[in-house]
Each structure stands twice: as C-alpha cells, then as structure tokens.
Design goal:
With 88 residues, this protein is an alpha+beta fold. It is 38% helix and 33% strand. It has one domain: Alpha-Beta Plaits, CATH 3.30.70.920. It has a four-stranded antiparallel β-sheet, with helices on one face. Strand 2 and strand 3 form a beta hairpin. It is globular and about 50 Å long. The mean pLDDT is 94.
Length: 88
C-alpha cells in the first residue's frame, strides 16, 4: 500500500534534527516502510513524502517515532487505474 504524507515541522529544522529523522527513516525501511520520495515544499506544509508499506500500522509506527519533530496528515493512495475500476 502507498501513502502520501503531508509534513509540518514542530520546530525550526536543524542539521541534528534532519540527521535524526534520516536515521528513523532508515530504521523504518528495515520494518518494511520504503520511502519513495521526499520533497520540501513552500506553503501550508513543510514537506511531502510518498511511502510504500505492507500496511497502515507500519506507517503509523514510524510516524509515532518521529512525532517529536513533525506533525503529519497521511493519505492512503491507490493507483488511478484501480480507483477507476471501483467506479464501474
């Protein structure tokens, strides 16, 4: 399953905080949460990530570990082709 994660920093990002988050992302990959892309953004959110994981619980577990540094809004995503089949 894939998820789009909208991210807001809880505090001003520092090199140390970024390094800590990268270590957490790498640890999450060992648990099956693969980060497909990560982009810092301008506007309402500070970053957007696209992840792939075996289930929602794996993503939630990783985000809980990162909750000291970020707040998130997570959207579960399916390919448009599959969604169109649901409408038939």
């Amino acid at each position: 399953m894939k998820a789009v994660i909208l991210i807001k920093f809880r505090k001003k990002p520092t090199k140390e905080m970024i390094a800590q988050n990268i270590k957490m992302l790498e640890a999450g990959e060992k648990e099956g949460v693969k980060n497909l892309s990560l982009h810092w953004t301008l506007g309402r959110y500070d970053a957007v990530a696209v992840t792939e994981a075996p289930n929602e619980k794996a993503i939630m577990k990783q985000l809980i570990k990162m909750s000291d540094n970020i707040t998130t809004e997570t959207l579960i995503a399916i390919p448009a082709e599959e969604a169109r089949k649901l409408a038939e």
